Amino acid sequence: MSISEKTINVNSLKWFYREVTPQQASDTSPVLLLHGLPSHSYTWRQLLSILDDYNLKAIAPDWLGSGSSDKPSQREFAYTSEAYLKALSDLIQALELEKISLVVQGYLGSVGLQYALRFPNTIDRLVILNTPLSTTVKLPWMMQQWGIPLAGEMLTQDPILVDRTLEKGSGFVISDHDLAMYRQPYLKSSSVGRALVSTIRNLKLSESMSEIEKGLATWEKPTLIIWGMADPWLSSTDVNKLKENKNIELATLEEAKHYPQEHWNKEISPLIVNFLGRR
User: Fold this and answer.
1) Torsion of CA 265, 267, 272, 278, to 10 degrees
2) Exposure on the CB side of residue 83, measured as CA atoms within 13 A
3) DSSP β-bridge partners for residue 255
4) 1 pLDDT tier (thresholds 50, 70, 90)
5) For the chain, percent helix, then strand, then coil, each to nearest 5?
6) How far apart are CA 215 and CA 118, in angstroms?
7) Which residues contact 123 (CB under 8 A, 6 or more apart)?
8) What's the pLDDT tens digit per position in 49-96?
9) Which of 44, 65, 104, 277 could bridge 195 with an S-S bond, Cβ 3.0-4.6 Å?
10) Which of 246, 278, 275 lies closest to 128, judged by CA?
């Protein structure tokens, strides 16, 4: 496995990303993988390794405010969906990615869906893993608490919130080594907690969901949805409605929950590799 760790400055802000680069030339579009909350690009470690094995270029950034990317103050970055969308667009341009296959997961992964809907000509294929998709979606109470005045500031300074959220969402124990990797940003600086508070308070999920729900109903690019049916926070009802769109195919994992990439990589990797390689 040869996953590189890199940074790039875009509009005076540093993005950190993990990358695998093919040893031989490939005619398959680069893959961009976007994480959810309160995770970072480490969540894609297993899938990146598989994509590398299949000679695919893939990039997994840490969102601004997460992982090892910059955590600007709210004066410098608004932490709204629109701010994240603009930052993502600028990052893709800076990385000189003319066309991509996009993989998204989780709360904040929804910004990637907004990007795809607004810039469909830059999208080759789309893969969705347990991401908010409709106006019925709300932030789970566990995440809503991070935006409560005073209480949110206290909760988000406790690195254990990562353990609690990832294990609650995935439904299975995550190894101590992997949890330590997820906790690192919270142990290094209080700024990641402040960024998480700002994100929860400013995300305005209902507005984003309206755009996504309408857009996916008529979406024309090849799309694979891989859904953990036991997700405690997102219902499968809305996903089943999308099967009416002939460009969208659905693969279900009956026992997987909100973060299927954590414990079900052996199941999802072949599906994604096969889908990305179709022509």
Assistant:
1) 150
2) 19
3) none
4) low
5) 45, 15, 40
6) 9
7) 99, 100, 101, 102, 116, 221
8) 999 999 999 999 999 999 999 999 999 999 999 999 999 999 999 999
9) 65
10) 275
Tell me the C-alpha distance between 84 and 50, whole Å: 28
**DSSP assignment of 44-88:** GHHHHHHHHHTT--EEEEPPTTSTTS----TTT---SHHHHHHHH
CA distance 217 to 202: 26
Over residues 159-212, the pLDDT tens digits come to: 999 999 999 999 999 999 999 999 999 999 999 999 999 999 999 898 999 999
Q: What's the gap between Cα 38 and its chain centre?
A: 10
> How far apart are alpha carbons 217 and 223 in whole angstroms?
12
List pLDDT tens digits, range 5-30.
999 999 999 999 999 998 887 888 99
Task: Count Cα atoms within 13 angstroms, Cβ side, for 118.
Answer: 13
d(CA 263, CA 193): 26
**Which residue matches tokens 């929860």?**
200
> Measured in Å, how far apart are the chain's first and last C-alpha atoms?
27
